[in-house]
Alkaline phosphatase family protein (Thermalbibacter longus), 498 residues
Amino acid sequence: MRREGESDIQATPAGEIVTLTRFPGGELHDGAELGAVTEQTVRVWARQPGAPTLIARLEIPGFSPVVGSVPLSAETDWTGVLTLSAPAPVPDQPFVCIVGERRLSGRFAPAPDEHCAFAFAFGSCHRPYELDPDGHVRLSERAKLYPAMREELLTQGARFLLLCGDQVYSDALPPISVRENLPGDEDHPPPLETIIEAYRRVTRGYLGEAGFRALREAFPTYCIWDDHDIFTTWGSRLHESPLDRRLFHAASRVYCEYQHSRNPGGSLKEPPYHYTFRFGTAGFLVLDVRGARHYPSGTLLGTQQWEDIQRFLGSAEAASLHTLFVVTSIPVAHVSRWLVRLFQRLPGHLADEVRDRWCSDAFIESRNRLLSALFDWQTAAPYRQVALLSGDVHAASAFTIRRRGKFGAILECTSSPLTTKATRLERWLNLIATRAPNLLEPELHFERHFLVLANNHGLVRLRPLPGGGHHIEFTVRAWEERSRAFRPAGRLASAPEF
Ligand SMILES: [Fe+2]
Protein backbone atom coordinates (compact mmCIF):
# COMPACT_ATOMS: atom_id res chain seq x y z
CA MET A 1 0.00 0.00 0.00
CA ARG A 2 1.07 3.58 -0.58
CA ARG A 3 2.95 5.25 2.26
CA GLU A 4 1.55 8.54 3.43
CA GLY A 5 2.78 11.54 1.52
CA GLU A 6 3.70 9.61 -1.60
CA SER A 7 1.81 10.58 -4.69
CA ASP A 8 2.03 10.48 -8.44
CA ILE A 9 0.26 13.81 -8.51
CA GLN A 10 2.41 16.80 -7.64
CA ALA A 11 2.24 20.55 -8.01
CA THR A 12 4.92 22.41 -9.98
CA PRO A 13 6.44 25.63 -8.51
CA ALA A 14 3.96 27.53 -10.74
CA GLY A 15 1.09 25.74 -8.99
CA GLU A 16 0.26 23.53 -11.98
CA ILE A 17 -0.87 20.00 -11.06
CA VAL A 18 1.02 17.36 -13.01
CA THR A 19 0.90 13.59 -12.98
CA LEU A 20 4.33 12.04 -12.74
CA THR A 21 5.10 8.73 -14.31
CA ARG A 22 7.51 6.30 -12.74
CA PHE A 23 8.25 4.58 -16.05
CA PRO A 24 11.64 5.54 -17.49
CA GLY A 25 10.32 6.05 -21.03
CA GLY A 26 7.00 7.54 -19.95
CA GLU A 27 3.61 5.97 -20.59
CA LEU A 28 1.92 5.12 -23.85
CA HIS A 29 0.08 8.25 -24.97
CA ASP A 30 -1.46 7.91 -28.43
CA GLY A 31 -1.12 4.77 -30.51
CA ALA A 32 -2.52 2.53 -33.22
CA GLU A 33 -1.94 -1.20 -33.64
CA LEU A 34 -3.33 -4.00 -35.78
CA GLY A 35 -5.28 -6.81 -34.17
CA ALA A 36 -7.15 -9.75 -35.70
CA VAL A 37 -6.99 -10.21 -39.47
CA THR A 38 -9.17 -12.42 -41.67
CA GLU A 39 -9.15 -12.88 -45.45
CA GLN A 40 -11.34 -9.75 -45.68
CA THR A 41 -11.16 -7.74 -42.45
CA VAL A 42 -8.62 -6.10 -40.19
CA ARG A 43 -9.16 -4.93 -36.64
CA VAL A 44 -7.49 -1.70 -35.56
CA TRP A 45 -6.87 -0.72 -31.96
CA ALA A 46 -6.18 2.93 -31.24
CA ARG A 47 -5.74 5.46 -28.47
CA GLN A 48 -5.84 9.23 -28.69
CA PRO A 49 -6.53 11.11 -25.45
CA GLY A 50 -9.09 13.88 -25.84
CA ALA A 51 -10.29 12.85 -29.32
CA PRO A 52 -13.88 11.63 -29.74
CA THR A 53 -12.96 9.70 -32.90
CA LEU A 54 -9.94 8.76 -34.95
CA ILE A 55 -10.05 8.21 -38.70
CA ALA A 56 -8.57 4.96 -40.01
CA ARG A 57 -7.98 4.38 -43.71
CA LEU A 58 -7.38 0.94 -45.21
CA GLU A 59 -5.49 0.85 -48.51
CA ILE A 60 -5.43 -2.34 -50.58
CA PRO A 61 -3.80 -2.39 -54.04
CA GLY A 62 -6.53 -2.47 -56.72
CA PHE A 63 -9.32 -1.20 -54.44
CA SER A 64 -10.62 2.19 -53.38
CA PRO A 65 -9.55 3.06 -49.84
CA VAL A 66 -11.90 1.99 -47.05
CA VAL A 67 -12.36 4.65 -44.38
CA GLY A 68 -13.82 4.27 -40.92
CA SER A 69 -13.67 6.01 -37.58
CA VAL A 70 -12.62 4.57 -34.26
CA PRO A 71 -14.90 5.83 -31.47
CA LEU A 72 -12.95 6.92 -28.38
CA SER A 73 -13.97 8.28 -25.01
CA ALA A 74 -12.72 8.88 -21.48
CA GLU A 75 -14.90 5.88 -20.47
CA THR A 76 -12.37 3.59 -22.14
CA ASP A 77 -9.29 5.69 -21.31
CA TRP A 78 -9.46 6.99 -24.90
CA THR A 79 -8.93 3.54 -26.42
CA GLY A 80 -11.14 2.01 -29.08
CA VAL A 81 -11.30 -0.52 -31.90
CA LEU A 82 -12.65 -0.62 -35.40
CA THR A 83 -13.00 -3.48 -37.89
CA LEU A 84 -12.30 -2.38 -41.45
CA SER A 85 -13.61 -4.61 -44.21
CA ALA A 86 -12.38 -4.93 -47.79
CA PRO A 87 -15.15 -4.93 -50.44
CA ALA A 88 -14.43 -8.61 -51.16
CA PRO A 89 -12.18 -11.34 -49.72
CA VAL A 90 -8.54 -10.54 -50.53
CA PRO A 91 -6.65 -13.50 -49.02
CA ASP A 92 -2.92 -12.98 -48.47
CA GLN A 93 -3.01 -9.48 -50.04
CA PRO A 94 -0.83 -6.81 -48.46
CA PHE A 95 -2.51 -3.73 -47.04
CA VAL A 96 -1.61 -0.50 -45.30
CA CYS A 97 -3.76 0.94 -42.55
CA ILE A 98 -3.27 4.65 -41.92
CA VAL A 99 -4.35 5.94 -38.52
CA GLY A 100 -3.43 9.57 -37.94
CA GLU A 101 0.26 9.75 -38.80
CA ARG A 102 0.86 6.04 -38.33
CA ARG A 103 1.13 3.61 -41.26
CA LEU A 104 0.58 0.01 -40.21
CA SER A 105 1.42 -2.68 -42.76
CA GLY A 106 0.12 -6.22 -42.82
CA ARG A 107 -1.30 -8.97 -44.98
CA PHE A 108 -4.78 -10.41 -44.92
CA ALA A 109 -5.14 -13.99 -43.73
CA PRO A 110 -5.20 -16.84 -46.23
CA ALA A 111 -8.59 -18.09 -47.44
CA PRO A 112 -10.15 -20.50 -44.94
CA ASP A 113 -9.58 -23.51 -47.24
CA GLU A 114 -6.10 -22.48 -48.42
CA HIS A 115 -3.62 -25.16 -47.39
CA CYS A 116 -0.57 -22.95 -47.29
CA ALA A 117 2.79 -22.25 -45.64
CA PHE A 118 3.15 -19.46 -43.10
CA ALA A 119 5.05 -18.49 -39.97
CA PHE A 120 4.05 -16.75 -36.77
CA ALA A 121 5.78 -15.77 -33.56
CA PHE A 122 4.75 -16.07 -29.95
CA GLY A 123 6.11 -15.14 -26.56
CA SER A 124 5.17 -14.20 -23.03
CA CYS A 125 6.40 -12.32 -19.95
CA HIS A 126 7.25 -8.74 -20.87
CA ARG A 127 9.12 -7.12 -17.99
CA PRO A 128 11.69 -4.74 -19.44
CA TYR A 129 12.10 -2.81 -16.17
CA GLU A 130 14.22 -3.29 -13.08
CA LEU A 131 15.24 -1.25 -10.05
CA ASP A 132 18.49 0.71 -9.95
CA PRO A 133 20.55 0.75 -6.71
CA ASP A 134 18.53 3.77 -5.50
CA GLY A 135 15.27 1.89 -5.94
CA HIS A 136 14.15 3.78 -9.05
CA VAL A 137 12.70 2.01 -12.06
CA ARG A 138 15.05 1.81 -15.03
CA LEU A 139 15.02 0.11 -18.40
CA SER A 140 16.80 -3.22 -18.37
CA GLU A 141 19.46 -4.23 -20.91
CA ARG A 142 17.12 -7.06 -21.87
CA ALA A 143 14.79 -4.54 -23.54
CA LYS A 144 17.31 -4.47 -26.41
CA LEU A 145 15.82 -7.80 -27.39
CA TYR A 146 12.73 -6.15 -28.92
CA PRO A 147 14.25 -4.25 -31.87
CA ALA A 148 16.22 -7.40 -32.78
CA MET A 149 13.07 -9.51 -32.51
CA ARG A 150 11.17 -7.11 -34.73
CA GLU A 151 13.90 -7.23 -37.40
CA GLU A 152 14.14 -10.99 -37.20
CA LEU A 153 10.39 -11.52 -37.52
CA LEU A 154 10.17 -9.13 -40.47
CA THR A 155 13.00 -11.05 -42.16
CA GLN A 156 11.31 -14.37 -41.39
CA GLY A 157 8.01 -13.12 -42.82
CA ALA A 158 6.03 -13.79 -39.62
CA ARG A 159 2.37 -13.10 -40.34
CA PHE A 160 1.31 -12.29 -36.78
CA LEU A 161 2.38 -12.20 -33.17
CA LEU A 162 0.70 -14.03 -30.29
CA LEU A 163 1.32 -12.58 -26.83
CA CYS A 164 0.59 -15.40 -24.41
CA GLY A 165 0.36 -13.57 -21.09
CA ASP A 166 2.13 -11.28 -18.62
CA GLN A 167 2.26 -8.38 -21.05
CA VAL A 168 1.88 -6.21 -17.95
CA TYR A 169 3.48 -6.88 -14.55
CA SER A 170 1.07 -5.05 -12.31
CA ASP A 171 2.81 -6.27 -9.17
CA ALA A 172 6.51 -6.77 -9.82
CA LEU A 173 8.37 -3.61 -8.80
CA PRO A 174 7.32 -1.62 -5.71
CA PRO A 175 7.40 1.89 -7.26
CA ILE A 176 5.04 0.82 -10.08
CA SER A 177 3.09 -1.95 -8.36
CA VAL A 178 -0.67 -1.41 -8.41
CA ARG A 179 -1.26 -3.08 -5.05
CA GLU A 180 1.56 -1.35 -3.22
CA ASN A 181 0.57 2.13 -4.31
CA LEU A 182 -3.14 2.09 -3.52
CA PRO A 183 -4.78 3.65 -0.48
CA GLY A 184 -6.75 1.39 1.87
CA ASP A 185 -5.94 -2.16 2.92
CA GLU A 186 -6.77 -5.78 2.07
CA ASP A 187 -10.20 -5.63 3.74
CA HIS A 188 -11.03 -2.03 2.86
CA PRO A 189 -10.06 -1.55 -0.77
CA PRO A 190 -10.39 1.81 -2.50
CA PRO A 191 -13.22 2.38 -5.02
CA LEU A 192 -13.09 0.36 -8.25
CA GLU A 193 -12.47 3.54 -10.30
CA THR A 194 -9.29 4.29 -8.33
CA ILE A 195 -7.95 0.80 -9.03
CA ILE A 196 -8.95 0.98 -12.71
CA GLU A 197 -6.91 4.18 -12.99
CA ALA A 198 -3.92 2.42 -11.39
CA TYR A 199 -4.15 -0.51 -13.84
CA ARG A 200 -4.45 1.91 -16.75
CA ARG A 201 -1.27 3.64 -15.62
CA VAL A 202 0.74 0.45 -15.25
CA THR A 203 -0.62 -0.88 -18.56
CA ARG A 204 0.36 2.31 -20.37
CA GLY A 205 3.80 2.04 -18.75
CA TYR A 206 4.43 -1.54 -19.90
CA LEU A 207 2.81 -1.28 -23.34
CA GLY A 208 4.53 2.06 -23.91
CA GLU A 209 8.05 0.63 -23.71
CA ALA A 210 9.45 1.71 -27.09
CA GLY A 211 10.81 -1.61 -28.36
CA PHE A 212 7.78 -3.67 -27.34
CA ARG A 213 5.52 -1.07 -28.83
CA ALA A 214 7.41 -0.98 -32.17
CA LEU A 215 7.16 -4.78 -32.26
CA ARG A 216 3.36 -4.66 -31.85
CA GLU A 217 3.13 -1.93 -34.48
CA ALA A 218 4.93 -4.16 -37.00
CA PHE A 219 2.58 -7.18 -36.85
CA PRO A 220 -1.10 -7.98 -36.34
CA THR A 221 -1.09 -8.96 -32.68
CA TYR A 222 -3.31 -11.30 -30.67
CA CYS A 223 -3.26 -11.31 -26.87
CA ILE A 224 -4.32 -13.33 -23.89
CA TRP A 225 -3.68 -12.37 -20.31
CA ASP A 226 -2.03 -14.28 -17.49
CA ASP A 227 -1.66 -13.73 -13.77
CA HIS A 228 0.65 -10.69 -13.75
CA ASP A 229 -1.76 -8.76 -15.96
CA ILE A 230 -3.93 -9.11 -12.82
CA PHE A 231 -1.50 -10.04 -10.00
CA THR A 232 0.66 -13.05 -9.30
CA THR A 233 -1.08 -16.46 -9.03
CA TRP A 234 -4.59 -14.98 -9.25
CA GLY A 235 -7.12 -17.78 -8.97
CA SER A 236 -4.75 -20.28 -7.37
CA ARG A 237 -4.62 -18.78 -3.89
CA LEU A 238 -6.35 -20.48 -1.02
CA HIS A 239 -7.92 -17.21 0.14
CA GLU A 240 -8.99 -14.09 -1.72
CA SER A 241 -9.28 -10.78 0.10
CA PRO A 242 -11.83 -8.07 -0.81
CA LEU A 243 -8.91 -6.15 -2.33
CA ASP A 244 -7.90 -9.18 -4.44
CA ARG A 245 -11.36 -9.42 -5.94
CA ARG A 246 -11.53 -5.72 -6.70
CA LEU A 247 -8.07 -5.83 -8.30
CA PHE A 248 -9.34 -8.63 -10.54
CA HIS A 249 -12.38 -6.62 -11.65
CA ALA A 250 -10.28 -3.55 -12.37
CA ALA A 251 -7.63 -5.57 -14.25
CA SER A 252 -10.36 -7.23 -16.36
CA ARG A 253 -11.68 -3.87 -17.43
CA VAL A 254 -8.25 -2.53 -18.40
CA TYR A 255 -7.20 -5.79 -20.10
CA CYS A 256 -10.27 -5.37 -22.34
CA GLU A 257 -9.49 -1.73 -23.10
CA TYR A 258 -5.83 -2.20 -24.01
CA GLN A 259 -5.48 -5.82 -25.10
CA HIS A 260 -8.57 -7.99 -25.57
CA SER A 261 -10.45 -5.48 -27.73
CA ARG A 262 -8.03 -6.19 -30.61
CA ASN A 263 -8.81 -9.94 -30.54
CA PRO A 264 -11.52 -11.54 -32.72
CA GLY A 265 -14.86 -10.45 -31.25
CA GLY A 266 -13.03 -8.67 -28.41
CA SER A 267 -15.15 -6.20 -26.44
CA LEU A 268 -15.56 -4.77 -22.96
CA LYS A 269 -17.05 -7.74 -21.14
CA GLU A 270 -16.70 -9.96 -18.13
CA PRO A 271 -14.08 -12.76 -18.31
CA PRO A 272 -13.25 -15.38 -19.47
CA TYR A 273 -11.72 -14.01 -22.69
CA HIS A 274 -11.24 -17.14 -24.83
CA TYR A 275 -11.61 -16.86 -28.60
CA THR A 276 -10.83 -18.69 -31.83
CA PHE A 277 -9.48 -17.72 -35.25
CA ARG A 278 -8.14 -19.50 -38.28
CA PHE A 279 -5.30 -18.98 -40.70
CA GLY A 280 -5.92 -21.13 -43.77
CA THR A 281 -6.28 -24.73 -42.63
CA ALA A 282 -4.69 -24.03 -39.23
CA GLY A 283 -6.93 -23.04 -36.35
CA PHE A 284 -6.23 -21.26 -33.07
CA LEU A 285 -8.20 -21.90 -29.91
CA VAL A 286 -7.02 -19.31 -27.40
CA LEU A 287 -7.99 -20.34 -23.88
CA ASP A 288 -8.37 -17.97 -20.96
CA VAL A 289 -6.97 -19.95 -18.03
CA ARG A 290 -7.16 -16.93 -15.64
CA GLY A 291 -10.61 -15.41 -16.04
CA ALA A 292 -12.64 -18.19 -14.41
CA ARG A 293 -9.94 -19.81 -12.26
CA HIS A 294 -10.85 -20.44 -8.63
CA TYR A 295 -8.70 -22.97 -6.78
CA PRO A 296 -10.97 -23.48 -3.73
CA SER A 297 -13.85 -24.67 -5.96
CA GLY A 298 -11.62 -26.49 -8.47
CA THR A 299 -12.74 -24.24 -11.35
CA LEU A 300 -10.24 -23.67 -14.13
CA LEU A 301 -11.95 -22.96 -17.46
CA GLY A 302 -15.46 -22.40 -16.09
CA THR A 303 -18.73 -23.77 -17.48
CA GLN A 304 -19.19 -21.21 -20.27
CA GLN A 305 -15.67 -21.60 -21.63
CA TRP A 306 -15.78 -25.39 -21.46
CA GLU A 307 -19.09 -25.44 -23.35
CA ASP A 308 -17.65 -23.10 -25.97
CA ILE A 309 -14.58 -25.35 -26.37
CA GLN A 310 -16.75 -28.44 -26.85
CA ARG A 311 -19.00 -26.63 -29.32
CA PHE A 312 -15.96 -25.43 -31.27
CA LEU A 313 -14.28 -28.86 -31.38
CA GLY A 314 -17.51 -30.39 -32.70
CA SER A 315 -18.15 -27.64 -35.27
CA ALA A 316 -17.88 -27.75 -39.06
CA GLU A 317 -15.24 -25.02 -38.66
CA ALA A 318 -12.99 -27.30 -36.57
CA ALA A 319 -13.70 -30.25 -38.88
CA SER A 320 -12.18 -28.32 -41.78
CA LEU A 321 -8.87 -27.67 -39.94
CA HIS A 322 -5.74 -29.76 -40.42
CA THR A 323 -3.81 -28.39 -37.46
CA LEU A 324 -5.11 -26.89 -34.23
CA PHE A 325 -3.03 -24.64 -31.98
CA VAL A 326 -4.37 -24.32 -28.46
CA VAL A 327 -3.03 -21.37 -26.50
CA THR A 328 -2.86 -21.95 -22.78
CA SER A 329 -0.70 -19.39 -21.02
CA ILE A 330 0.12 -21.94 -18.32
CA PRO A 331 1.76 -25.02 -19.88
CA VAL A 332 0.05 -28.38 -19.42
CA ALA A 333 3.18 -30.51 -19.44
CA HIS A 334 5.96 -28.30 -18.15
CA VAL A 335 5.75 -29.00 -14.42
CA SER A 336 5.69 -32.66 -13.35
CA ARG A 337 2.86 -34.10 -11.30
CA TRP A 338 5.13 -35.48 -8.57
CA LEU A 339 6.45 -32.03 -7.74
CA VAL A 340 2.97 -30.52 -7.60
CA ARG A 341 1.70 -33.36 -5.41
CA LEU A 342 4.61 -32.80 -3.07
CA PHE A 343 4.26 -29.04 -2.55
CA GLN A 344 0.67 -28.02 -3.38
CA ARG A 345 -0.59 -28.18 0.22
CA LEU A 346 2.05 -25.92 1.70
CA PRO A 347 1.06 -22.38 2.68
CA GLY A 348 2.72 -19.35 1.11
CA HIS A 349 3.50 -17.88 -2.26
CA LEU A 350 5.72 -20.67 -3.61
CA ALA A 351 2.88 -23.13 -3.03
CA ASP A 352 0.49 -20.74 -4.84
CA GLU A 353 2.80 -21.13 -7.85
CA VAL A 354 2.59 -24.90 -7.48
CA ARG A 355 -1.22 -24.85 -7.13
CA ASP A 356 -1.28 -22.76 -10.31
CA ARG A 357 -0.37 -25.83 -12.42
CA TRP A 358 -2.80 -27.81 -14.58
CA CYS A 359 -1.84 -30.96 -12.65
CA SER A 360 -2.60 -29.65 -9.14
CA ASP A 361 -5.33 -31.61 -7.36
CA ALA A 362 -7.94 -28.91 -7.95
CA PHE A 363 -7.32 -28.65 -11.69
CA ILE A 364 -6.19 -32.08 -12.88
CA GLU A 365 -9.71 -33.12 -13.80
CA SER A 366 -9.99 -30.07 -16.06
CA ARG A 367 -6.62 -30.97 -17.59
CA ASN A 368 -7.63 -34.54 -18.32
CA ARG A 369 -10.98 -33.50 -19.76
CA LEU A 370 -9.35 -30.93 -22.06
CA LEU A 371 -6.62 -33.33 -23.24
CA SER A 372 -9.20 -36.05 -23.84
CA ALA A 373 -11.30 -33.69 -26.01
CA LEU A 374 -8.18 -32.62 -27.94
CA PHE A 375 -7.01 -36.22 -28.47
CA ASP A 376 -10.53 -37.08 -29.72
CA TRP A 377 -10.40 -34.22 -32.23
CA GLN A 378 -6.86 -35.04 -33.30
CA THR A 379 -7.39 -38.76 -33.87
CA ALA A 380 -10.67 -38.31 -35.80
CA ALA A 381 -8.78 -37.65 -39.07
CA PRO A 382 -5.37 -39.02 -40.06
CA TYR A 383 -3.66 -35.74 -40.93
CA ARG A 384 -4.61 -33.75 -37.85
CA GLN A 385 -2.16 -32.36 -35.28
CA VAL A 386 -2.67 -30.44 -32.05
CA ALA A 387 -0.02 -28.17 -30.59
CA LEU A 388 -0.32 -26.31 -27.30
CA LEU A 389 1.33 -22.87 -27.18
CA SER A 390 2.30 -21.69 -23.70
CA GLY A 391 4.30 -19.21 -21.67
CA ASP A 392 4.39 -18.24 -17.97
CA VAL A 393 7.20 -20.44 -16.65
CA HIS A 394 10.24 -18.27 -17.47
CA ALA A 395 11.79 -21.01 -19.59
CA ALA A 396 11.12 -22.42 -23.05
CA SER A 397 10.44 -26.10 -23.58
CA ALA A 398 8.94 -28.67 -25.91
CA PHE A 399 7.05 -31.81 -24.96
CA THR A 400 5.02 -34.52 -26.64
CA ILE A 401 2.02 -35.78 -24.68
CA ARG A 402 0.58 -39.21 -25.45
CA ARG A 403 -2.12 -41.44 -23.98
CA ARG A 404 -0.87 -44.77 -22.74
CA GLY A 405 -2.11 -47.60 -24.96
CA LYS A 406 -3.97 -45.32 -27.36
CA PHE A 407 -3.24 -43.38 -30.54
CA GLY A 408 -2.65 -39.68 -30.62
CA ALA A 409 0.02 -37.12 -29.80
CA ILE A 410 -0.21 -33.53 -28.64
CA LEU A 411 2.79 -31.21 -28.88
CA GLU A 412 3.49 -28.53 -26.34
CA CYS A 413 5.63 -25.54 -27.30
CA THR A 414 6.45 -23.05 -24.54
CA SER A 415 8.19 -19.72 -24.97
CA SER A 416 8.93 -17.54 -21.91
CA PRO A 417 10.25 -15.05 -20.89
CA LEU A 418 10.62 -12.25 -23.41
CA THR A 419 12.30 -9.75 -21.07
CA THR A 420 11.49 -10.91 -17.54
CA LYS A 421 14.64 -12.00 -15.72
CA ALA A 422 14.26 -15.53 -14.43
CA THR A 423 15.48 -15.73 -10.84
CA ARG A 424 18.08 -18.28 -9.80
CA LEU A 425 15.34 -20.17 -7.93
CA GLU A 426 13.12 -20.22 -11.02
CA ARG A 427 15.97 -21.59 -13.15
CA TRP A 428 16.69 -24.30 -10.64
CA LEU A 429 12.99 -25.14 -10.29
CA ASN A 430 12.60 -25.37 -14.07
CA LEU A 431 15.44 -27.87 -14.22
CA ILE A 432 13.89 -29.99 -11.47
CA ALA A 433 10.21 -29.54 -12.37
CA THR A 434 10.53 -30.90 -15.89
CA ARG A 435 12.28 -34.10 -14.70
CA ALA A 436 10.50 -37.45 -14.31
CA PRO A 437 7.30 -36.14 -15.94
CA ASN A 438 5.70 -39.59 -15.97
CA LEU A 439 5.76 -40.26 -12.23
CA LEU A 440 2.19 -40.51 -10.87
CA GLU A 441 0.74 -40.23 -14.39
CA PRO A 442 -1.02 -43.55 -15.05
CA GLU A 443 -2.93 -42.40 -18.16
CA LEU A 444 -0.50 -40.10 -19.92
CA HIS A 445 3.06 -40.21 -21.20
CA PHE A 446 5.15 -37.04 -21.41
CA GLU A 447 8.33 -36.75 -23.43
CA ARG A 448 10.52 -33.71 -22.85
CA HIS A 449 12.48 -32.65 -25.93
CA PHE A 450 14.39 -29.64 -24.62
CA LEU A 451 14.51 -26.91 -22.02
CA VAL A 452 15.93 -23.41 -22.63
CA LEU A 453 16.57 -21.04 -19.72
CA ALA A 454 17.58 -17.89 -21.66
CA ASN A 455 15.22 -15.05 -22.58
CA ASN A 456 13.56 -16.02 -25.83
CA HIS A 457 10.73 -15.88 -28.31
CA GLY A 458 9.14 -18.75 -30.22
CA LEU A 459 8.86 -19.04 -33.97
CA VAL A 460 6.46 -21.52 -35.59
CA ARG A 461 6.66 -22.34 -39.26
CA LEU A 462 4.03 -24.44 -41.04
CA ARG A 463 4.45 -26.15 -44.40
CA PRO A 464 1.47 -27.89 -46.04
CA LEU A 465 1.91 -31.57 -46.80
CA PRO A 466 0.44 -32.86 -50.08
CA GLY A 467 -1.39 -35.73 -48.34
CA GLY A 468 -2.97 -33.35 -45.80
CA GLY A 469 -1.76 -31.84 -42.57
CA HIS A 470 1.27 -29.67 -41.92
CA HIS A 471 4.91 -30.03 -41.20
CA ILE A 472 5.29 -27.94 -38.04
CA GLU A 473 8.62 -26.50 -36.97
CA PHE A 474 8.92 -24.83 -33.56
CA THR A 475 12.16 -22.95 -32.94
CA VAL A 476 13.16 -21.24 -29.71
CA ARG A 477 15.18 -18.12 -30.46
CA ALA A 478 17.31 -17.44 -27.39
CA TRP A 479 18.63 -13.95 -26.64
CA GLU A 480 22.33 -13.61 -25.95
CA GLU A 481 22.92 -10.44 -24.00
CA ARG A 482 26.63 -10.31 -24.74
CA SER A 483 26.34 -10.45 -28.53
CA ARG A 484 22.87 -8.83 -28.53
CA ALA A 485 21.65 -11.39 -31.02
CA PHE A 486 19.28 -14.33 -31.15
CA ARG A 487 20.49 -17.88 -31.64
CA PRO A 488 18.47 -21.05 -32.25
CA ALA A 489 18.38 -22.84 -28.89
CA GLY A 490 15.79 -25.56 -29.35
CA ARG A 491 13.95 -27.04 -32.32
CA LEU A 492 11.09 -29.48 -32.60
CA ALA A 493 9.73 -30.61 -35.96
CA SER A 494 6.55 -32.60 -36.30
CA ALA A 495 4.34 -34.11 -38.99
CA PRO A 496 1.11 -36.12 -38.77
CA GLU A 497 1.72 -39.67 -37.58
CA PHE A 498 -1.00 -41.19 -39.83
FE1 LIG B 1 5.83 -14.08 -16.28
Residues 125, 166, 228, 392, 394, 417, 420 surround fe (ii) ion (CB under 6 Å). Residues 1-7 have pLDDT under 50 and may be disordered.
